[in-house]
């Protein structure tokens, strides 16, 4: 075969035809249609399913074998096998958290607004990598629209603030703290942090801060030893008077506290730190205030819940996990900067193949220079889609319902003599203990852990536990709007049933120990 002046031998031309044939099938519209209809049927069935179920934990080695058994060998095959695809989806669904079940009360994941899952398929098939305008035009425009909508809700003047989307709250926290470091420890981006500053660079965080924040000082050269842990009050919020005293003492001892990280919705109890007072203190002392509002930042959408975040408008930066409480697929996090010029401070780099130093209408829209990721899913489009199709009221309504339900649960459990709630809920997270008369105080913590394990293994409810002040407590996160107080009452019954089982096991153990003595 001759193509212009290049000669190909016949064998390679033949292989090419076969090769392309195989590929064509796998990538074809027909295969897309067939596979999509299998998946749609399965997901519709999942949404219709009206069962109370938790999570089924399988032995990892067995699961590994099962998953391996579904794989084809290296030969490759050009036919789509709908039965195999159905099996793979079934395996996935069997091993996933049942977020649409009324037994699911364990974690911060929610089911997503279904249109966003469908749109995720569209954005996967026709990608718009979101960091650069030329590759992700609508994604970059959506970034701007969502940024403006939130700025309006926060009360920031148009055009003064900025927002960057990141893949996850962990990355948003890292990015914000890097921006804080580069801003307050001038020249650290270029010269590193091993140079004379006002003192030892230190980041102050609340005791209950998420681990994604407490690992940042290790990453950005501040060092784990230079984290100042701020004490909490009895609502597990940063206790401002004690925090101020501690920061001042640390300063006197030569530490330069350049950043404070507060939480708006701590992972363990959902506590919202006193943002207003912390903003006052931070501003008066030239400290960058970052708020990890991954969980509760979404309250900005609700007129009723927004006041709980008072002070957030004065933070230098804050983030919201849209994949938690804005009900879109993971990962989608919004990172806000009050001062738009600071958003460029996290990364200051030259890369002529992507960054264009000439400001033009397109570069002004793109986020590549402001976020860690190069290729980035256009996850923001899902949020824009919900806003376009339903308006933000849909999200606000769900959030308000979940917060009210958590308050009702608190009132209900407070009323029961064998339960003890650990805190008043500030959002949709509630921690409590089950304390039947028979349990000695030194075994209360062990009972909570055993209850979590036992209830999870029974498979009807899925709840979590958290360690507070060295003791285990039970924790529920109400993310499913189909749950009502009746389901909570069923959970109470399940906890009591499970505790009876544990009591029997424990007394059998005690007898066995007695006998073996
Ligand atoms: C308060 C808080 N911050 C940050 C994160 C981390 O977010 P992501 O899982 O999106 O990285 C979480 C996750 O649970 C969280 O609860």
Report on the architecture of this protein:
The chain is of the alpha/beta class. The chain contains 17 helices and 13 strands. Helix 5 crosses helix 14, helix 6 (137-154) packs across helix 14 and helix 16 (444-458) crosses helix 17. It is globular, with a radius of gyration of 26 Å. Bound molecules: pyridoxal-5'-phosphate. Pyridoxal-5'-phosphate binds next to helix 7. Residues 108, 168-170, 210, 212, 263, 265, 267, 292, 294-295, 321, 331, 333 line the site of pyridoxal-5'-phosphate.
Structural class: alpha/beta
| Relative strand content | 5-15%
Shape: globular
Helix run count: 17
Flag low-confidence runs: none
Write the H/E string, N to C: EEHHHHHHEHHEHHEHEHEEHEHHEEHEEH
Could you tell me the number of beta strands? 13
Largest sheet: 7 strands, mixed
| Sequence of strands across the biggest β-sheet | 3-9-8-7-6-4-5
Q: What gap, in angstroms, lies between the N and C termini?
A: 89 Å
Which secondary structure elements does this structure contain, and how are they paired or packed?
Blueprint: E1 2-3, E2 6-7, H1 10-26, H2 29-48, H3 60-69, H4 82-94, H5 114-125, H6 137-154, E3 162-166, H7 169-184, H8 188-191, E4 200-206, H9 211-214, H10 216-219, E5 227-230, H11 240-252, E6 255-263, H12 275-284, E7 288-292, E8 317-321, H13 322-325, E9 333-337, H14 380-390, H15 393-415, E10 419-421, E11 429-434, H16 444-458, E12 464-468, E13 471-477, H17 485-516
Parallel strand pairs: 4-5, 4-6, 6-7, 7-8
Antiparallel strand pairs: 1-2, 3-9, 8-9, 10-11, 11-13, 12-13
Helix pairs in contact: 2-4, 5-14, 6-14, 16-17
Pyridoxal-5'-phosphate is lined by residues 108, 168-170, 210, 212, 263, 265, 267, 292, 294-295, 321, 331, 333.
